[in-house]
Amino acid sequence: MNTKYEFGDDTQNTVYIRRVEMDSLPDEVREQAEGLDSLYAVHGMDGERLALVKDRKLAFFLARQNDLEPVSVH
Questions:
Q1: Distance CA 67, CA 60 (A)
Q2: What are phi and psi of 27, to 5 degrees?
Q3: Residues facing 53 on adjacent strands
Q4: What are the CA-CA distances from residue 25 to residues 18, 33, 54, 61 (Å)?
Q5: 22-71 per-position pLDDT tens digit
Q6: 3-class secondary structure for 13-69?
Q7: What pTM value is reported for the model?
Q8: Measuring CA to CA, which residue among 42, 48, 46, 33 is closest to residue 62?
Q9: Is 47 left (phi over 0), alpha (psi -120 to 50) or beta?
């Protein structure tokens, strides 16, 4: 089968979720996240950090609540 399909540009709604170690974050963020060893970041397609949350599940939930398609980054 050699049928072309127009996928469109759905990548505008894609965000990337990745784990962030606490020692890579500014002091003020570490103070607010006392007791945690890492946070999860939600990044836009351009690499801009959109949010920091306490766990992976919350990061995916936040993305979906904002009509975004989360993708895990390892």
A1: 11
A2: -55, -40
A3: 40
A4: 14, 10, 13, 22
A5: 999 999 999 999 899 999 999 999 999 999 999 999 999 999 999 999 99
A6: HEEEEEEEEHHHCCHHHHHHCCCCCEEEEEECCCCCEEEEECCHHHHHHHHHHCCCE
A7: 0.80
A8: 42
A9: left
